[in-house]
Amino acid sequence: MNKIIGFLVVINCLFCFSQEKYTQKISYDLNVKVSENNHINEEMVLLLNQNESVYTSQNKIKNDSVKRYYLINKDLQGFQSYILNNDKKNLINYFIWKKSNDYIYQINSGLKIVQYKSSLPQLNWQIISNSSEEILGYKVQKAETVYEGKKYYAWFSTEIPINNGPFVFNGLPGLILKIQNEDSSYVITVKGIKNESNLFPELEKGKKVIETKKENFYKTIEGTMKEVQTMAADEQTKKLMNKKIKQYLDAKFLFDVN
């Protein structure tokens, strides 16, 4: 079992780095209420320049960079130690690249990397407040919209004239500094904004990338993880892996806002 997990990590966790640079880094605090006794908290980042942006977990960027260093230097002992001591901090494992009106959603899954391409949602925002509320010292307005059948509230600032925000949320005349769903079980709040010039993490490419459609996304992920299950040495391990796969797929907050 441990050999299988180690093999998967080696195959899937590397990120290449683009020659393009981002010029701003927006840090967000993501809070997800899975149940009364289970809350997920992770730092997310929106890296952007005038033409494109990347939204992912800060820990994912760090972990991928460190793993890449260990593997390039063939330090398998250091690599294994890092995996055991650090990877549990990175639960949100997706990568969203946005450019113009489109985005690519990519995630490591089993022995493959699954991705789909889609148009950014054309959200029908209704501005419901012109209050003097502030976030990080910026005056914000409140707006609401419906995305995939669920209502979301956003707080945006025209003092930062950027049509962007966490995940795939967009379409307001200012940067989205906070967004949450109707029951506040999914909340993303800005925690820092700074100018920073660095290389974008780049999407994985090549034969290990499986291109699918958004409507087939979860089915494709399930298939790639089942491939891993067949590598198990005994039936008990297969049953355990099957249980873990189901828990993973049921926890949609790990992938999406739904």
Biggest β-sheet: strands ordered side by side in the sheet: 7-10-11-12-13-1-2-3-4-5-6-14
Main β-sheet description: 12 strands, mixed
Terminal CA distance reads: 31 Å
With helices defined by DSSP (H or I, 4 residues minimum), what is the helix count? Answer: 5
Q: How large is the share of residues in beta strands?
A: 35-45%
Helix content: 25-40%
Q: Could you state the oligomeric state of the chains shown?
A: single chain
Number of strands: 14
Tally of discrete structural domains:
1
What is the N-to-C succession of helices and strands? HEEEHHEEEEEEEEEEEHH
Overall mean confidence score, pLDDT = 82
* Low confidence ranges: 1-17
Structural class: alpha+beta
- From the spread of the alpha carbons, the general shape counts as globular
Using the CA coordinates, give the radius of gyration: 19 Å
